[in-house]
Amino acid sequence: MDQLIDIAVIGAGHAGIEAALAAARLGCRTAIFTINLDWVGNMPCNPSIGGSSKGHLVREIDALGGEMARAADETAIQCRMLNLGKGPAVHSPRAQVDRRAYADSMKHRLELQPNLEIRQAEIVDLVRCAGSVERPWSISTRTGTRIAAKCVILATGTFLRGRVHVGQASCDGGPDGMPSARALTQALRALDIPLRRFKTGTPPRLHRRSVDLSRMELQRGDPEAVPFSFETRAEPRQSALCYLTYTTRETKRVILENLHQSPLYSGQIEGVGPRYCPSIEDKIVRFPDKERHALFLEPCGERTEELYLQGCSSSLPEDVQMAFLRTIPGLEACEVTRPAYAIEYDCADPLALRHSLEFRELPGLFGAGQFNGSSGYEEAAAQGLIAGINAAHRVLGRPAFVLSRAEAYIGTLIDDLVTKGCGDPYRMMTSRSEFRLLLRHDSADRRLLPYGRALGLVSRERFARHQEKLAAIETEKRRAEKTTIPSSRELNLLLESLGSSPISSGARLADLLRRPRLGYAPLEPYDSTRPGDLSREVAEQVEIDLKYAGYIKRQQAQVQEMNRLEAVRLPEDLDYEKLASLRMEAREKLAKVRPETLGQASRISGVNPADISVLMIFLKTKGQL
Amino acid sequence: MKALDTIAAIATPNAPGGIGIVRISGSAAIVTAQKLFYRKKSVDWSRLQGYHMMYGTIKAAGEAPEQPVLGDTGNEKIPNDGNCELRAAHCEMIDEAICLVFRSPGSYTGEDVVELQCHGGLIVLRRVLRAVLACGTGVRLAEPGEFTKRAFLNGKLDLAKAEAVMQLVRARSEQASRAAAAAMGGSLSQRIAEIRGGLIALAAHSSAWIDYPEDVIEELPPERVALALHNAREALRALLSRCEANEAVMEGVDTVLLGKPNVGKSTLMNQLAGYSRSIVTELPGTTRDTVTEMVQLGNVLLRLTDTAGIHETEHPIERIGVERSRTAAARAALLLLLLDASAPLSEEDEALLAQCEGERTIVLCNKSDLGLALDLGALRAKHPYVLPVSAATGEGLESLARALERLLGTERFSPCEPMLATQRQRHCAEEALAALQEAVQALEQGFGLDAIQICVEDAVQALYSLTGERAGEAIVNEVFEHFCVGK
């Protein structure tokens, strides 16, 4: 007799974890399957979480009740806010994380979750049971157990038919020496899921004692660490130091001379690699004018001597890696504990997915993470959360939960994947969002916590605390509008030193805060009525709201402009092949993506404004516009 | 699900001419031609290549009760070979014609297109069109501008070029036509793409700088950002500053001819228009209505309105005329005030001069051939443009033309320069410029790239709208409503 559950999650990486936790928290009987239970939430590449736009994703996951932010705060060993000085929209939190501790923490979180079963097992088959309306999906483990489920979430990462390459040497395998999942691909093909082959890579790890850190630039964490989770009160640890070095002319020479030994250039690897995360050989070939490339050494944890060499992923043979590493200042005598390697894996074409991350043609089957063609832990976790929520909603008979591009980076990420598809592993970037100023990392709770609460993933207590924060922001804004700061010689000296014009009589605090170079911190001595308990978070929100009001308004107008097209729904059964006045390319792309709205249609590459005009005219003649 | 209908219209002017064209566009264009166009030699219509030209006759069921027997009705006895004699037995010949066949997408609209070139008589053309509409293939009459609308929808033209087609069709002068042709060739689209390109490059650099904090990408120094914004702004300003001159050449300037009764306004009007239109008499107040003429002076087009002689009157009919002329003067972009040079300024003249103060005015002193009683120097002290003319002989009109060109800035007008030709285009350019102003302001105040980029993005979007590379229903409709049928 089959075991019966609601939702099966295949894979316990960053996507699988969020999917399983969300589904279980929404009350669904959930099981998560992983090939190696000791490496739940593994970080097979960089030992860090966050970064430009990825930090935004982590904070959004947190506001929706996801887990990544809390686990990262707990196991962080160095925190930095990136892009300070480039404007608040692009400030991005990033943390070095102890990867062993992170995996253990995640495993424990899964274990403590009610409704969630954790199973170490390779899934070798996935079939649709035509007979069962109740549980249409059946999965089988390598050891012969069958489980029937209402929904299945595929979060297979790089395990699916994974193949590892180091130079000409290659073997079947998953990340970090784990086995690959070779059988499942066949089952997915039988379901007509469009599969493709992607490739990614990771740099070498070095032994700390073999590296001359004194010859490198030191990078410390920020004096005041900003945690990922809006709920984290304890300041994250700042125990680790990172180091910066650069490639040399000699590095370039060694790599160029041995380029022919790379499996990428010889054609041994067929998978497409991430354009925005190139290997060191790629960087050298593509940017021949660049004298040197920056490389960062990041500790893999507190209880290990391994250092991760960021910026240096490669698929060159081990001896060539050794040769070029030794041309880098500080690495002349380096010991490599693990060589850089490339890994190829099977993944799905995300154009076959809806915004809910459910396969359009396979109700109850969802995809998340690298399986959907993305790259990165944070991108994976974000999709896992949404897939988990939507699988649960399907089980519970609730409508799909979809975030728009104007609400979240998560919405942008998923819309990009299911609308534009991806020709290479998709990496989140701030430039992918048209609404950066609205989607700031610091506003993630204001944007998304109400959804988290409505979904049932955010507790009543947490939501109440959030509302207190909102009230505090309003109170402080009113105080800033009412408070007059008298003119004084000291204040005017300060203003001038900050490049701001002096004031002759008093000025309202709000008006001073609106000035670009001024903020709460420098004005403190002159702001006598400032409440003692004014938190950094509240002050920051007030300052941004005041300073950027005009630009936020402009951006909101842009959102409204987008929403005009977004509001026009396209009929599900629209036969694009028969719309003769559409160009051939547009017809094909529209038929493939099957956009839900005119707005989505307009973002499909290969569909131009003229095609949208044709669709408008068509809808008009049908009386649907 | 239905594709767009097949449409047809007379594509040549609604006037007798040597040749007249009926144009048919859409999936049923070729089958329609097959039903009406007859040729001695049989034609395999389905295999006909694009850019094919044939001589033959157009026939259609005349008053005869029976419909023509057609090859594609499924009647097996009659082969579908296009042989005219057999099929056309019951048909009446309408005209001899050349049939031009264009295959999608290699046609003006991007659809299958057939042009039937007939003799240019209006009656003939109307009969051919009627036959096309009535032959049972579902062809309907094209709406104004619909052929060009389809060309736009099928990606054959961008919006700016489509608008240029409209300009070309309506061009009232050679200059206007040359300018429209340049725009149709893409001179405006190209200039806009250049401006946009600079802004996008700016955005791309800042994005890389933000998205790769570890890659040590150089920050764009504020001077470089400022320079990029400045260049885009200047390019837009240059385009906008030429708008008025362009309009003067392309569209015409609303001009009102003012003057007391009987000063010679109608005579001047007629002189300018080249033929008599207003009634000219010696009795004051004979011109009761406003009369508008399109007049070309130098390279300037004037939409010149003659007003009833402005003076207070009790006569009811005249009062209406007077009121109309006041309204016209209030709306005008340019005033031509006609004075009698042979008599000193009357009270009415003084009142009119006062009315013109602060308005763009050219003062014309008529009957200067009869001797000067006016003090031109005194007039010039208040009005920069004071010219002696003779409405009767046309003397002085040459210097009026030069003055107009100077006043409206059309002296250096070059039809090859890109120009904003429509209100819509101008509006988009103004929107882009406003967004850039705000970006510059943000930069000067020391705001981060966030704020600057939001404004730059707005500017880029406005420029996409300008060339129609951003979809918007309003744009599409607005533009095509103004097209004439058949183009």
Walk me through what this model shows:
Chain A is built from 21 helices and 22 strands. Chain A has 625 residues and is of the alpha+beta class. In chain A, strands 1, 2, 6, 7, 8, 9 and 20 form a seven-stranded mixed beta sheet that branches. In chain A, strands 14-15-16-17-13-18 form a six-stranded antiparallel beta sheet, with no helix packed on it. The longest helix of chain A has 23 residues, at 460-482. Chain A is globular. The N and C termini of chain A lie far apart (53 Å). The relative contact order of chain A is 0.12. Chain B is α/β, with parallel strands linked by helices and 487 residues long. Chain B contains 17 helices and 13 strands. Chain B has helices spanning 29-36, 84-87, 122-134, 146-153, 159-170, 174-184, 187-211, 222-241, 243-250, 265-273, 316-331, 347-356, 376-382, 397-408, 423-445, 449-467, 473-481; strands at 7-10, 19-25, 37-38, 52-61, 91-102, 113-119, 140-141, 253-259, 291-297, 300-306, 334-340, 361-366, 386-388. In chain B, strand 1 (7-10) and strand 2 form a beta hairpin. In chain B, helix 15 packs antiparallel against helix 16. The longest helix of chain B is centred in the middle third of the chain and has 25 residues, at 187-211. Chain B starts with 6 loop residues before the first strand and ends in a 6-residue tail after the last helix. In chain B, 47% of the residues are buried. The model of chain B is unreliable at 63-88 and 275-288 (pLDDT under 50). Chains A and B meet through helix 18 and helix 21 of A and helix 4, helix 7, helix 15 and helix 16 of B.
Enumerate the spans of chain A where pLDDT stays under 50 for 5 or more consecutive residues: none
The rounded distance between the terminal residues' Cα atoms of chain A is: 53 Å
Give the integer mean of the pLDDT values of chain A: 93
Radius of gyration of chain B: 30 Å
| SS strand fraction of chain A | 15-25%
Largest interface: A-B, 55 and 45 residues
- Bin the helical content of chain B: 40-55%
The H/E string of chain B reads EEHEEHEEHEHHHHHHEHEEHEHEHEHHHH
